[in-house]
């Protein structure tokens, strides 16, 4: 089962936390070393952005309906002093995490999302969100949101809330 | 009250044994005590409350399914694993504390509570590797003879600790790369669920060290229809239910697990429409041979939704015997079920609204709803 | 302010926990040494027991309306595995406590009640009860229910629930 | 996702800067960070949640009364005392931890949190004597110059600790027999409320040791109309409100406290009918000279009932300016109030349903209701 996408998941999970876009590009570059760089055209389906406007919660970072939260089971950091991609002040991001694949209705693309936990304070207790699209049981950890992903943070391993960091787009048909 | 009044108080008290006129005698002075538990009965249930909104404060409520009384509480720390000893005399809690409540020095520990007194009798400090995940029977577990306790470790690398509960020691750690959790069988075997859809079974020697290991055949498909990482105890092992409702019966009575041909909770027409869901998603009444599963209508990703109905199956013929919708009973969706193993069995059903319902396990008749048995009661043990 | 009733409060607060009726009698006897033992007839007003039956909660130990809970601010041990006078299994009674004076509608008498906290487990969280008849601020501790009365229990000083132990009757007019 | 698909992913990502057809460019990969707090504003409020149903998990929510956003959280342990430093830069929490969550070795400690980062910077371990009682401004407090921190001790014998927050040390303990809590004034004075209805004032030397003490005249009647053990900060000291609604203004600007003639929140007809109540039962807007008090109708023993109305007084003339009933605003009774001290002041009102309302402090107009800001928000600081 150690396929390339698993490798990608594993490496991006440990990278997402402190990786700038620039260095993620570098990591992707390494991953692609030796592969032909064939351009690929994403399909433009369109017409979903309007539908999303009619369902505003799909674009509201403080709503569990927000498109990129499709595999969060926990408290939304955007309701706890953080944002979709930032941990609340005084908390510590988890260096390891799980991965989701979510559909963005605004551009009709699927994105790979890293869900990091923010750690070191007790439960935020606000905006409890339980979505599990493509979520798998704990024995498949890279796709599991039941694990306390703060668990490797040592003394700062208490779970506070979860963020969702876009890693990249998933091409249609994958 | 004036000082002179106090003398009256005392005097009235002192003469209380002597009735004067028609007045009833005053109530006697009372003695403060600590309640002793009555003898256990089969309808006792240990309700685990994760207290998800205040997660450092998880606890277990001991509840009586006959009198509908709360009998006491066992505190359980942060995101614990919980189980009972085979004789029911001990509750084992594997948990994590921080020296400053939610932060500071982390201590992972297994605590043993005497179920007669609800006092912690002793503890075993673990390496800081304990699996912190949703409740299941497999986060911490006893061997069948009670001589070993197994604690699941996830860092996220997977392994488990072997503990000696009697002497309060850690005997060792066994690596289970790619396989997780502690599914006990017999006096000295531990199986783990593998990412590959197999079971790894490690056999221990008398010192709790690895004596051998075996990997089973693949019995489910992790990508397309994984089983829940929660088991339903059967006479010879566990039933594992898949997201789409396949039932995998695993017999762990021998060194190599035996897998019965899977059967389905749903008809072909229901498949992918009706699904099992929740946290503790099944209970088996072993004498009656009845399996209870909370079921809901939902799509991919709905596997943590509670059941809008409880479906009842004959575990032998796999025939569905009943569907018990819970909304007409005033209940929110069911996230956990457990059943007593006596001759007049009761079914316990915990809801997403944190209530625990007590039902007649034969008829489904609602006997009682205990409101707000904690914040998030996600597993029940008996 | 060190009047006799204060002394009574202080001593009964430390006694109530492990004192049998017999030894409480002894303590009262000591308190009364030198006082003339004049018999006093309690007034029999009657007629309130029926009224109480019409309001069953006044006699329900799992209801905050129960007559003897007139100065409890906390969780009722009777809902937590204990009773009106017993701490739940596995908890530790507080040796110090506060005092209330409650009217029992069944016999129309006022009783002095010792409210002990039960300690060493986290909040019972059930049957939250907040009654404050004749309750006084914390600077008058013997009549205050805001203090965690488990506080002197050392390592077992976490607050779990509260009980109400009858110490004796208060004569009418006092 | 197949392995080949991954390459597509990466490739799409790499060419994302080059639009092809009319499709919008894909969203860029993002970076995880830790949020920095914006600059403080006068409408920030520190909402203390006792979390009474999970009392080892108390916390403070930092909330913005302009944007209605939660800005962050400071954890606060078991039954803590909480206060802010005079410059607002530090939150001080005096609390208790047990090595096993709810039991085990007890540690009393004062923790200092940098309000710019919401990280604990250092702590001072106390003797296990800390006052564990309902929140007030007087469980833990800073001297006016910030050089001392005072921690109230109750065992139930009363004393207090003098701490050096800069060097993280306990300087000493001062006995206050019969008098409780730490009411700070000036750089080196601590007053305590006495069972006798007086104020004990201890003056400290530069080392934090007692240099002198003075007992005031009696200014209230403990038995017949005690003042709440909670104060309302004024320009020169504190207002203390009695159960029946008398306002005792105490000027602490000199060595000996000065007591103004008490005045009443209620008319003779209202006395004993309308009462102040709750936990934090008043707030004074010092520039406007307006006093806000939650009031309810009730009898003896109702002093912890929240206000069905907020009454607004001119603090100079003692005239009642307004009554603001809260039920029409959809609010449960008010258990705590606080007001900002800027020129466009907002009034914060915490309810018994754990909501926090934001009102215009001049008009009473409701601006916002923040639902469920914790379990039991009983005090607010700014």
Describe the structure concisely.
Chain A has helices at about 5-15, 20-30, 50-55; strands at about 75, 85, 90-95, 100-105, 110-120, 130, 160-170. Chain A has about 170 residues and is of the alpha+beta class.
Description:
The complex is a heterotetramer, with two copies of chain A (174 residues) and two copies of chain B (382 residues). Chain A is of the alpha+beta class and 174 residues long. Helix content of chain A is 17%, strand content 23%. Chain A has three helices and seven strands. Chain A has helices at residues 4-15, 21-31, 48-54, and strands spanning 73-75, 86-87, 92-93, 98-104, 109-119, 128-130, 159-170. Chain B contains one helix and 30 strands. Chain B is globular, with a radius of gyration of 24 Å. Residues 1-20 of chain B have low confidence and may be disordered. Chains B and C meet through helix 1, strand 1 and strand 4 of B and helix 1, helix 2, strand 2, strand 3 and strand 5 of C. Strand 1 of chain B pairs parallel with strand 2 (86-87) of chain C, so a sheet runs across the interface.
Properties at a glance:
heterotetramer, A: 174 residues, alpha+beta, four-stranded antiparallel β-sheet, two-stranded antiparallel ribbon, 3 helices, 17% helix, globular, disordered N terminus, B: 382 residues, mainly beta, seven-stranded antiparallel β-sheet, five-stranded antiparallel β-sheet, 30 strands, 3% helix, 47% strand
């Amino acid at each position: 089962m150690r396929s390339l996408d698993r490798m990608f998941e594993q490496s991006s999970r440990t990278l997402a936390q402190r990786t700038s876009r620039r260095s993620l590009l570098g990591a992707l570059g390494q991953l692609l070393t030796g592969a032909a760089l064939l351009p690929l055209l994403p399909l433009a389906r369109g017409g979903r952005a309007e539908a999303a406007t009619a369902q505003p919660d799909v674009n509201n970072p403080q709503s569990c309906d927000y498109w990129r939260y499709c595999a969060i089971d926990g408290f939304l950091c955007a309701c706890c002093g953080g944002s979709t991609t930032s941990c609340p002040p005084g908390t510590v991001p988890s260096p390891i995490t799980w991965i989701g694949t979510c559909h963005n209705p605004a551009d009709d693309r699927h994105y790979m999302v890293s869900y990091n936990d923010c750690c070191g304070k007790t439960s935020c207790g606000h905006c409890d969100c339980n979505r599990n699209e493509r979520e798998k049981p704990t024995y498949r950890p890279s796709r599991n949101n039941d694990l306390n992903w703060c668990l490797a943070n040592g003394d700062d391993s208490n779970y506070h809330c979860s963020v969702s960091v876009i890693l990249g787009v998933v091409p249609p048909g994958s | 009250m004036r000082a002179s009044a106090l003398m009256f108080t005392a005097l009235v008290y002192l003469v209380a044994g002597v009735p004067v006129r028609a007045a009833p005698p005053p109530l006697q002075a009372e003695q403060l005590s600590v309640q002793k538990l009555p003898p256990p009965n089969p309808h006792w249930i240990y309700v685990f409350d994760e207290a998800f909104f205040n997660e450092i404060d998880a606890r277990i409520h001991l509840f009586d399914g006959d009198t509908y009384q709360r009998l006491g509480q066992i505190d359980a720390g942060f995101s614990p694993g919980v189980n009972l000893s085979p004789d029911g005399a001990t509750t084992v809690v594997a948990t994590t504390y921080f020296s400053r409540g939610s932060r500071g020095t982390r201590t992972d520990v297994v605590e043993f509570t005497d179920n007669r007194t609800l006092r912690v009798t002793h503890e075993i400090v673990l390496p800081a590797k304990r699996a912190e995940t949703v409740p299941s029977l497999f986060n911490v577990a006893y061997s069948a003879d009670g001589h070993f306790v197994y604690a699941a470790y996830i860092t996220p690398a997977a392994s488990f600790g072997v503990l000696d509960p009697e002497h309060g020691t850690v005997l060792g750690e066994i690596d289970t790369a790619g396989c997780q959790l502690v599914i006990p069988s017999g006096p000295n075997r531990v199986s783990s669920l593998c990412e590959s859809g197999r079971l790894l079974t490690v056999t221990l020697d008398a010192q709790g060290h690895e004596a051998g290991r075996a990997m089973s055949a693949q019995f489910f498909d992790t990508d397309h229809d994984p089983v829940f990482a929660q088991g339903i105890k059967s006479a010879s092992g566990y039933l594992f239910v898949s997201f789409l409702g396949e039932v995998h019966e695993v017999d762990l009575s021998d060194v190599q697990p035996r897998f019965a041909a899977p059967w389905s909770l749903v008809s072909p027409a229901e498949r992918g429409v009706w699904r099992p869901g929740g946290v503790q998603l099944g209970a088996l009444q072993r004498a009656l041979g009845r399996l209870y599963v909370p079921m809901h209508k939902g799509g991919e990703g709905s596997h943590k939704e509670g059941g809008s109905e409880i479906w009842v199956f004959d575990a032998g013929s796999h025939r569905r015997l009943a569907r018990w919708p819970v909304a007409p009973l005033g209940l929110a969706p069911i996230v956990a079920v457990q059943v007593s193993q006596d001759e007049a069995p009761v079914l316990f059903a915990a809801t997403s609204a944190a209530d625990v319902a007590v039902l007649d396990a034969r008829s489904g008749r609602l006997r009682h709803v205990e409101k707000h048995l904690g914040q998030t009661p996600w597993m029940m043990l008996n």
